[in-house]
Amino acid sequence: MNKLFLLSRLGVLAALVALPFCSCDDSVIYDDEGDCSVNYRIKFKYDKNMKFADAFSNEVTSVALYVFDEAGTLVFKGVESGEALANENYAMPVELQPGDYEMLAWCGVGNGESFTVPEAVIGVTKKEDLTCRMNRISANGIGVVDKDLAPLYHGQLKVKFSDAIGTHYETISLTKNTNVVRVVLQQLSGEDVDPEQFSFEIQDYNGFMAYDNSLLEDELMIYKPWSLESGSADIDADIYNGKTRASSVGVAVAEMTTGRLMADARPILVVRNLAEDKVVLSVPVVDYALLVKGNYNRAMDDQEYLDRQDEYNMTFFLDESGDWVSSTIIVNSWRVVLNNQVIK
After folding, report:
1. pLDDT tens digit string along 34-92?
2. What is the distance between the terminal CA atoms of the chain, rounded to a whole angstrom?
3. CB atoms within 10 A of CB 227
4. CA 32 to CA 44: how far, in whole Å?
5. How many Å apart are CA 130 and CA 105, to the nearest integer?
């Protein structure tokens, strides 16, 4: 009897020892066992903004993910759009073998209305082929954009996928490549400002992006307003060198959407008075944007600051003759006196 009992216990022990080795056998289903497969999931994050908070689920409407092997050849591509991206836990599954890969994401391209990325073919396309070109109307070596561009985002990541059992997550951080620039003209005389009396444009060479988000050689881009409005605004009558000014001023507002602003480039904002056929102002956009980088943001370099900002509001003041009062400008609610003093 004791011998039979001992054999029974040994049999149970042997079964328990053998169980882990057969629990991952695809031919057997164990309801109480975990999944023994290896899975890879890619998450996306957009926190390179001035809030330092992940806004991916609220702002990004489409993603296109490309994965390249160590030779730089495309081995996987995946796209997603719509409601799925609004889920804060969204992650794109990728079917790959363990190994080293480089990932590229162009997000926001969607149906290609604002930007074009070449068709990608697995086993053929190289990472250098996946450029992104801004759609424009081209003539005489100049490209014109007069529409509100869809928000565009870029991300890149090198990963090493493990062969360990389980689900592995990697996260791609995104950089926003589009900016809305609002130019406000205020008439200090109190007269209304007719926006149709002026032309507005931003000139830059930033309409063609490489796979790594650097800028490729391209024609001059001219960004024109997609919105023009007029109105009025109240002002502090005592801030202009002690001179008496109107307490209410006429305003013209022009909104333009541009490509990525680069710290080492020199995009120019040009405003012309059409009635008098003269340039009212011509200023370097990046230089003026960085004027209000501020003490809180001094730890970040200029390019990071420009990438985190995606809206710029610039207010210029016109005198009675319609010329720019070049001693004062307001940038993103900061009043800048152009003698190196900044007053909020």
Report:
1. 568 999 999 999 999 999 999 999 999 999 999 999 999 999 999 999 999 999 999 99
2. 94
3. 13
4. 32
5. 10
Q: What is the pLDDT of residues 217-253, one digit of tens each?
A: 999 999 999 999 988 766 655 544 555 555 667 789 9
> Which tokens hold the place of 272?
């012309």
91 and 48, same structural domain? yes
Q: In what order do the strands lie in the sheet with 153-161?
A: 74-81, 62-68, 99-107, 153-161, 166-176, 38-45, 92-94
Full residue range of the structural domain in which residue 227 is found? 179-343
Q: Tell whether 326 and 297 lie within a shared domain.
A: yes
pTM, whole model, 2 decimals?
A: 0.85
Work out the angle at residue 235's Cα, subtended by the Cα atoms of residues 231 and 237, and round it to the nearest 5 degrees: 140
C-alpha to C-alpha distance for 102 and 317, rounded to whole angstroms: 49
Please tell me whether residues 70 and 189 are part of one structural domain. Answer: no
- Strand 137-139 and strand 166-176: the pairing is unpaired
- For tokens 């400002």, the residue is 193
Number of folded domains that form the chain: 2
Q: Let me know whether 255 and 134 are in one domain.
A: no
Give the pLDDT confidence score for residue 282 in this predicted structure.
Answer: 94
67 and 59 Cβ atoms separated by less than 8 Å? no
Phi–psi pair at 168, nearest 5 degrees: -110, 130
Residues 117 and 54 in one domain: yes
- Residue 295: pLDDT band (50, 70, 90) is confident
